[in-house]
Every structure is written in structure tokens, then in C-alpha cells.
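seq/struct pair 1
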Amino acid sequence: MAAHDDEILGKAYDSRLMRRLIGYLRPYWGRALLALAAIIVGVGFQLAQPVLVKRAIDQHIATGDLRGVGVVALLYLGTLIGAFVAEFVQTTTLQMLGQRIMYDLRRQVYDHLQRLDLAYYDRNPVGRLMTRVTSDVDAINDLFTSGVVSVFGDLLSLCGIIAVLVSLDWRLALLTFCVLPLILMVTQWFRRNVRESYREVRTWVSRLNAFLQENLTGMATVQLFRREGRAFEEFQRVNGEHRDANLRSIYYYAVFYPAIELIGALSTALILWFGGGWVLGGTLTIGTLVAFTQYAQRFFRPISDMSEKFNLLQAAMASSERLFGLLDTPVRISDSGALGPGPSALTNAREEGGVAPSIAQGPRSKAADRPALGAGRIVVDDVSFAYNPGVDVLKHVSFTVEPGQRIGIVGATGSGKSTLINLLLRFYDVTSGRITLDGRDLREMTLADLRSHFALVLQDVYLFSGTIAGNIRLGRDDISDARVRAAAEAVHADVFIRDLPQGYDTPVAERGATLSVGQKQLLSFARALAFDPQILILDEATSSVDTETENLIRDALHVLMAGRTTIAIAHRLSTIQDMDRILVLHRGELREAGTHQELLALRGIYHRLYELQYQGHMPAPQGT
């Protein structure tokens, strides 16, 4: 999605986009036809009313037939009731239709957003995507509730009035039509200016959403660095531009509608001037003149309505172009995979032949000798990856993780540690090489199957609104309360949970704002353990926890990692010293691999990292 996609104006009418929009009507054709029928019936009742007035005046009032006047009055009352019922059916049906279409469209957009790869979110601000799901869908709803079907009613009403005017008296009809050039001039001016005004409003709405999302999410940083004043000034600027764009739009509406009324009044004055003379001359009845006046007043209403609906159509075309652009964004990480004809389920462990070099394989660890609780053999085979073409973040990385083995990954910032985890979970696909799990290329597996074998604990823990227990089970009905409590106890999270007012039922604020960093990380551990993963991934999981809490977590992890494949990324080397094997990444390359003592003995990159962290009190390497 382009950075300036909110400024897309597009065509006033695009048949390709309209066909796709009409497709959302298909499940509700019955309702659409009912609304169309109500519009036709309502137009018929409205067209009949001036004719009844003409009949009452010419045939009954002029002749003194009061009984006939009563009959016509009852018929007129019937047309009013009929028009009311038709309008009621039309309005309720179209509004219900619009709400259902809006529901379907939002559901489709959100479903697609959930399946898009993380690279898409790297390129597109959340505020802009929120505008797609909210404001743009609302614009399309307006099209269905006030545009597609009801514009047919305006056209039908306009054609009906023209036909009746010509049939009543062609001379007065020409007088009515003589103001049409003025109508066209005003309408064209209105459409041209409101079209540009609408584009500005949409642009500033999107920028306002993006600004609010970014600054409200980062309010702690704003307050910490005392940026409230500058942020408020920027908000004032964006909010002011949005206000001014709306005011310009209001100006055009304020000129357009009175201008239409003025032109309509001019037409009525011409009808009364010339028609009155013809009545006095005996060439026109008074009833015809009155009916003509009423029709002339109604003649300009559908013209102004269609001018406004043109703007609804313009808005819907621009919004649909953006929405369909989002929906047409290909899902690059999908179950169809990049290899083979389709997805396959995880298979049993199979032998992998010599794909990892000796630096990564290293001597067989104790973890590899003990029986694993289940499969979980990972092979990273000559993997390279680039977020941007030509700039490799990982370069020809190869290593093997045996089932039940505990692997630590270290390296300087930007060395590719977290990128490697993203590739393991298929948040991104490798640029070259391959990664296999139990002999199956990750790209041949369904995403649900692949990710069901992993649990990921991140440094920045994300909690959802809900309860403590709800954030541990994350909607999994098969995770019982007992299992939730057992997981919390295993990582010592139950210590602080029991002190909360409602225990496991305590509400969690947005993003866990009422919990400390350590408490949120403990909940993240409990969440991962409740899902009982085959492979546990820790990405700087203890970097923000105090020493006492870290010791509690490490005690729990020693028990939980037994027989479970574990990959831990850490800057603090103390958290991975007892791992079966440690991989050292440097500038996207796997440079060293071995146990803690073996890597210290090499006196290479790992040794330098160790010195930096323990300078002044580094113990001498053992076993050298």
C-alpha cells in the first residue's frame, strides 16, 4: 500500500470496482429487491399527489362538488400513508442491508489482515490500517444505504416528473426546463470542489488516526522525554487541517443547496407568472397550474439528491480502491507454501543427511543422548535472508538442533538473532536455503500445524484486555483452570497472582498497563507452558527481570526444558551458560558454536562478549 494511498481520488465511477461492490449484494438480493420495490411504490404515490390536487380543484372545487372533494381528500390521505409505509420499508431495509454488507466486508478485511505477513505491517502504519477497517468501510456502507439502490428512485422520480409535466402542458414544461443550464453549472461547480474537499478530509482523517495511534501507544515515552508540548502542537496542526478541510466542505454544501432552492424558486416564479396569465386567458386550468407548481418543486429535489449521491459514489470508489488494494495484497506466508503442491502435516522425525557444517554440529551433547519427549529436530541448512533485496541479514547460516537439546544464541545487536527466530516461526520466509522440522521443510507445512509446536516468549510481552487466566490460555478452551494454575505455579507467577484482588479473574488493562515488567514476563512464561510446546523459544525473555525473579524463572526452566527442544536468545550470557550448545552470530554469520567453556577457550567473539559483561571479575576458563 503506497504511503499516499489516502490521497487516492480515482474515477467518479469505476465499473470494475462497482462490480466487486455489487458482489457483496448477492447474499441479500431479496432485501435489495424489496427496497427497490418500496422505492418504485413510493415514487408512484408521490407522483399521484399533485394529480389528485389538480383533480380536486378542476373537477370538484371549481364546480362546487364538495362530496367529490372528500373522496379526493381520502385518496390523497391514502397516498400519504402509502408513501410513508414505502419510505419506512425502504429506509429500514437499506439500513439493515448496509449493516450486513459492512459486517461482511469488515470481517473479510480483518481476516485478510490476520493472514498478511509481518513484512506488510513493517511497511504500513497501524493508524492507516484502522482507517481502512473503519472509515473506508463506512463510506461503502453509505453507498449501499443511500446510493446504489436509492439513486434508482431519484432517476425514476425525475423521469416520472418530466413525463407528467410534458403531458400536463408542454409550455409550462419548457419554462421549467429552461433553468436546467443553471442547475448544471451549479452542480458541476459543487461536484468539482466537493470532490477535492473530500480527498483532503480523507487524507487528514487517516493522518489523525495514525498520529493518535502512535502517540497514545507511546505515551510513556512522550511523558518521559517531556514531549507533551511538541506532541500537542503537532496534534493541533493535524486536527486543525482536518477541521479546515471539513469547513471547506461545509461551505460548498452551504452554497449548493440554497442555490438549488433559489433556482427552483425562479422556476416556480416563471410558472406562476406565465401560467397565471394563461389561466386568466382561459388556456390553462387553475388545477393544472397548482399541480405544475408542486411538480416543479419536486423536480429539483432528485437533482440535488443525485448531486450529493455523486459524492457518495466518489467516496465509495476511493474507499473501495483502497480496500480492494488491501484485500488484493498477496498473502506471502500461507499454507499453500513456497514448495510443493500444498500443505502437509508434521511428520515423524526423519534422518537428515550432512547438511550442517561441523562448526554448528559440534560434539554430541548430553541432551542429545537422553530420550526426547517428542520430535523436534530442527535443521537450518545454508539459510540467507534479507528484509530488503541485496542487504542480507543472515548469510549462509547452517546448524542442527536435536530433539530435547537446549541451544543458546548470542551476538551483538543486529547480528540476526531475532531474525532467525522469525524464520523458524515463518513470520518471514528464507531468501535462500531451507529450514526443516523433523525432516519437513517449513514451507510445506500448514502455519497452524507448524506454530502449534512452538511457544515464543518475547522480551516485550503483549497482554490483551481480559483476565489473568484469559491471557494465559488465550482462548484455548481445552486448557483447563487447573492447567492454567499449574503453569503459573511452575514459573512462580502464582505468587503475585494470589495477591491480586480477584486472583486469576483479575481484569488486565490494555497491554497489561497495571502490571510490572517482571509480572508480565512471568505471565508470558505461564502462557507458553500452558500450551505445552514441543519447542520452546526464548527471545531475551529474562532481560528485563530483576535478579530474584530471574533466578525463580531459571529454576522453573531447568525442569521444563528437560527433554524439550529449547532455543534461547540472550544478551546476558549468565542466562545461557548451562545450555547444551551456544551459537555465536556475528554480522549475520554463524561464527562460533560450542559449550560455554569451549567457547571461552577459543578466545574469540564469545570470549570478547563475556569479557565485556564481566570485566574485572571474569573467572578463568575451566578445562583448558
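seq/struct pair 2
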Amino acid sequence: MLYKLYNLTINAGLKGELKLKKLQLLTLAQNQLTEIPSLGALLSLNYLNLASNYLKNLSDFNKLTTLRSLQILVFRNNQIRGNLPPSIGTFTSLKSLSLANNELNGPLPEEGFCGLRNIEELDLYSNSFDGSIPLCFSNLTSLKFLDLSSNRLTGTIPTTLFYRLSSLEHVSLSDNHFEGSFSFSSVANNSKLQFFELHCNNRMLNIDTENPPWTPLFQLNFLRISNCELNEPSRVMPSFILTQGNLRLLELSNNSITGRIPTWLLKNNSGLQFLSLGGNFFTGSFVMNSDHWFGNLYWFDVSMNEIYGELPPLMGFIFSNLVYLRLSENAFQGTIPPSMGDMRNLYYLDLSNNNFSGELPVNLIMGCISLRFLKLSNNAFEGNLFKSEWNLTNLHHLFMDNNLFSGKLSDGIMNSSQLEILSLKSNLISGKIPDWIGNLSSLEYLVLAENSLHGSIPLSFSGLQQLKLLYLSGNYLHQIPPGVNLSSLAYLHLADNELDGPLPSFISRLSSLISLDVRYNKLSGRIPSWLSSLTNLRTLLLKGNSLHSPIPAELCQLKNTSILDLSFNNLSGKIPLCLCSMPFGEKKPLPIDGTFSSNIFGWSMPRIVAYEYVGLFGVLDYPMATHVSISVSENVQFLTKSRYEDFSYSILYFISGIDLSHNKFIGPIPPCIGYLSDIHSLNLSHNYFDGSIPKTLSMLKEIESMDLSYNRLTGEIPSELIALNFLSVFSVAYNNLSGRTPAMVGQFATFEKQSYEGNEFLCGMPLPDCGTKNTKLPELYDEGTNDSFIVEFQWSFLGSYIVAFLSVVAYLYCSPYHSMLLYEFFTTRFRTCVSPFRRR
């Protein structure tokens, strides 16, 4: 130690002035302090730790200004807000200052920091400092550790910042808002530099590593440059990396770098442990041979590039100690090399979105016993799933969707008893859903959609008490046992199946349900009143069934619903007024988020920190000990802006709408619909609504799509609608509207005649001018769009004609006197007509 230490740890009850004049080290961390204690008498104090308390401001910072001998000051992990007082510069002996993980804001005070001439460690990580980096930082010539990451700093990075900082070892400038350009040659002479990190938040910073030509005097252990504009416009790989042989961690992701995949990086850096090159434009094949072995590498990510060809046959030997392997979103092809089964330490494997084919090698499903995450989505893998050799006993998350797997599901997957996510969407799987799936009691997310499964949901699903999302759409399921009990289910998708009869009653017990999608089945009967018991329901999609009768008033009790789709049914009657009391569009927090997130394991990009005590800059080794998370979003399809779109729940939080189209609703449109001020989409088309368009619809200030076409609406289009500034789709076509169209201002200037056609007495731009006589008969309905209405009209007319004719016959039969008069009338008329012909 540098000093003879007198260590003291005290509790939150510290009061008054401490009088231990020889005290040099004082730790008050994690003592729930809400203000800085008075320590004026500790004139020999050189270490003060106030980390992890409840300090909220530095208004009493002057209590410390008498501690002239202070060398280490730690305020990390508090709740300090406001500006940093310039009096920080009075601590001229300070060597280490940590203010990380607070809420400090405002610019970095030059009169404060720039007075710290002896500072060696400056840690300002994770605050809200703004403005630019003070130029006087270049005068802090003793600086070894500088962390300004995760703030709101702006402007350019001064080119002179590093010229005089010859002692620098660690620099982190990530997650700010820098812009302009930065020449990496400015650090060329920092011979002690080992750690450099710069992740760009906004891609407004161009980093040039090539001009002017330079030769680095440093040997980096850690280099991270990501999400930046790197070497524009050439986008070449930084050439100085060729001179770096001590790299242990290298990340150059999301920089749009071009050129061949740099396999030389691995050959030049035998000690490399972490390599991330994802999100670039690297191309070429992945060529390795038996002479290559990278046993120290445990993190390898080249996803989202343009790499093609097959994986090396000895992949499992070359990268035998990998923990994390991500090759997704490239153009790899061929089969998975059987040697990958030798990667026994592999936790995370993502080969999705490539052109891989063939069956899964037995070695893989038997040998990779540490796998917790396996993603093979969007390839052309084939064969039967879950063979008896399946031995991935630690697997938690399995994605095999959008492949060509076929046959029935076998129970080999039961060896993965800890499975939380199972996604087999869009394959060729057939047969019934097996009972044994109900034994995977840890499942939270089950996707078997778009296969050829038939039969019913097994009663054994009641064993899936952790299940939050069940996605079975696009199969041939026809029944759900009423006894199924899924108490935790939040998202249920059963669309595009063959369910018939009333809405399955087991749904009435799903008290946690947030989204229900049973579109395009054969459901019939009334909308059940028990839907009102689903108090958390946000999305109700009943489209494309044979439901009939009016909307039940109980449906209005769904006080959290934001999307309601009842279109393409046989519903009738008037819109219940209570529908206007439903909270469409009100942004309430979800009880269960639609994004499934889970920590996979404790490996990730590290944040390197310095020791907070003597030996100040013994930087912690690169432990990579945070977390990797995966997330799965729950999607809902809904008609808006005249097209169906998939919305994840992160978007659905901001989207709301009502679709009652293609039914048999009658009566006027309730004016109270206009009170749903937050709604984004309203579709009432293809019904029998009559009366005028309510002026209150102009109150729908968030509306983007409004379709009132194919009804029997009359009167004028309210001119007040031109105030709808976000309206991008509007149609009142094929009604009986009259008068002028709304003025072509704002959004209404974008609507063409298709929005208004089929209204005989409607005129004005974009229709013919009102001074021009329009003799064309209105086309009330497009051909084929309302055949059922035309047929009903024809049968009604024929029936009326027959009834009238029979009524006349019956009357004449019952009245001989009038029958005789009618006979004489027709006889006289007949003789008058034929007499001229007889005379000829």
C-alpha cells in the first residue's frame, strides 16, 4: 500500500464531526445516506467512498472542500441530479474520481475538471452530461483511465484531445451523440493505450482510420468501434489492426465495412477471445483448414453480412471452445458439419436466415450438451424432428420455424425438459398435436402455426401452467376440449383453422388473456356475453366467421380493449351506444408484455471498470459477465390504411381501431363514435348504415383510416372533417351522399375520386364540377362486391309482384259484379282494336 491505512466503516447513524485526525480511508458505501456527512476534521483523509447510497444532489458538496489530501473520491451508484459544482476543481490532489451511474446533467465544467491536474482516473459513465468535451481535458497529462460513455455529449471529438495524454491506458466514449469526423491517427502516439471503445448512437460520426497514414505505437487488448460511419466512402477494414497482435476483444459491428471476410484476424491474434463483426458487408467464403485452431475464442459473431459457401468440415475442431456462435443472416449453404457436435461448451448457436439444408446431424443433437439457445429458422432443413438421439438436456430456447421439417412430432424433445420457447412455425409437420407436449411444464411460448396438424388441442395442455403464448394458427384443428385450463395464457392465436360451433368455452377461464385471435374459422352463433369477463383483453379478432345477431351489450365491459375486429360475419342490428364508452386508444400498461425476454447465460460485451482503491488502475480482466437476452414479439394482424399489417405489441401499444365491415348493421352511425378521440382506424363499410355522416367524426384527431363506403348514407359530407390532419385513407364511395365534396386542403387534397365515386348527387373536386350536369346513373355497387344484396332485391320484387297479382285475382273471384264489369271492359276494347282489320 502507498500509505499506512486506518480503515473505518460506519453506518447510517453517523452524526456530527468525526475527530479521527489520522484517518486516511473511510468507506460509507451502502449506508442509505441521503446527504453528505460533515467530515471537515479528517484532514489526513485520502480515500472516501460514498457509493451506493441515496444521495440526490451535491448542494452540500462544500462540506468536503476542506479535505485537501483527498486522492480517491467515489460517488458511484447514487441518484445525484443537477450540475456538477465547479468546486470539484479544488481537489488538486485527487487522483481518482468516480461519478458513474448517477443523473448528473449539464455541461462538463471546465473550471472544475480542468483543475484536476493530478487526476489519473476519471469515471463519468452513465449520466446525462451534455455539451462538448472541454478542450482543457488535453491538459490532464496524468490521465490513465477516461470513461465518458453513456451520456449525452455532442459536437465533435477534439482532434487534440489525446496528443498530450501520453499515459492513457483506457478510453471509453461510447453511447453519446458525437458528430462530424474523428481521425483515429490522433491516438497514434499513445503508446500505453490498451482499451479503446466508441459505440455511436446516431451514426452521425465518421471515423477515419486511414488518413493521414500513420503507425500506431500502442498494442490494444480491447477495441470496440461499432454503429459508426467507418472510413467513408471506401468502407475498408481498418488497416492498423494488422499491427495489433495482442487483441483479446475486437468488435467492429454495424459499420458497413466491405471486403472479404477477414479470417486473418484470427490467425494474427491467437489470444483473441471475443470477435464481433456483425452488421457489415463482408463477403467471400469461410475458408479454414486443419492447421487452424482457435482454442481461446469463445465469442464469434459474423451475422448480417454477405458470407457464402459451406462451413468448414472441421468447424467443431477449429472452434472447439466456442460459447457463443452467431452466423445468421448470411448466404451460407450446405449441411451442418457433423464436427460441430464436438463443441461441448457451446451455449448459443444461431444459424438462422441462411440457405442451409439437409437433416440435422446426429452428432449435433447428441454432442452439444451445453446448448441453451438454438435458432435454425428460415433455412431449408428437412427430415423428422426430435429423434430418439436428441440429447440437448440444457436447451431453453428452440427456434426451427420456416424450414421443411416433416412427419409427426416424436417425443425425443422430452429430453429438453427445461424448454421455455418452442417455435416450429411454417414447416410440414403433420398428425395430431401429441399429448406429451403437456409434460413440458416450463414452456412459456409455444408456436406450432402454419403446419398440417389436425384434430384437437390435447387435454394434457392443462399441464402448461407457465404458458403465456399459444400460436396454433394455420392448421386443421377443429376442436378444443372444454376442460383445457391454461391459467397463465396471455396470447392465444387460433386463426385459419376449422373450429366450428360457438366460441370455445375454455376461453372464458383465461383471465390473463390479452390477445384473442380466432379469425377465419367456422364459428357460429352469437358473440358470447362471457367475453366481458376477460378484463385484460386488448385485442379481439373474430373476423371471417359466421357469427350472427347484434353485438351484445356485455362486450362494452371490456375496458382495456384497443383493437376490435368483427368484420366478415353476419352480425346485425344497430351499433350499441355503449361501444363509445370503450377506451380505444388509451395507453395503459400491459399486465404481461407482448415481448418475451429471457437471460440466456452470463456472457456479453463487458464494461471494464477500474479498481476503486489503491493500485488504482489495475483494470479488471475481461470477464464478459453481464447477460445476453433474447426476445420474441407477439404479433397481431389488423386492417389499417386499407391493408393488413402485422403489428408487434410494442407497436400495438400505440395503435387502436374498430372494424365492423362486411356485416348487416343498420341504423345511423352513432355520433358518439366521435368521442373515441384516440382511435387510429375506423371501418364501417359494406353494411346498411343510413342517415347522415356525424359531424362529431371530426373529433377523431388521431384517425389515419376511415372507411364508410358501401352503405346507405345520405346528406352532405361534413366540411369539419378537413381538420383531420393524420387521415391518409378516406372512403365514402357508393352511398347516397349529395352536395359538394370537402375542400381539397390538408389531407383531403390527397384523396382521389375513388374516395367519393358511386354517389350520384355528389360533386366538386376531384369529381366533376357542380356546374356540370351529371346524367350518368349512379353505380350503387361494384360488380361482384354486393351480389347478395342484388339477389335479395330481385327476389323481394318478384315476391311482391306475385302477391299483388294473386290479391287482384282473389278480389275478382269474390266480387261477381266487378268481375262482370272487367269482362265487359276488356271485350269492348278487344272489339275496337280488331274491327279495322276485319273491314279490310
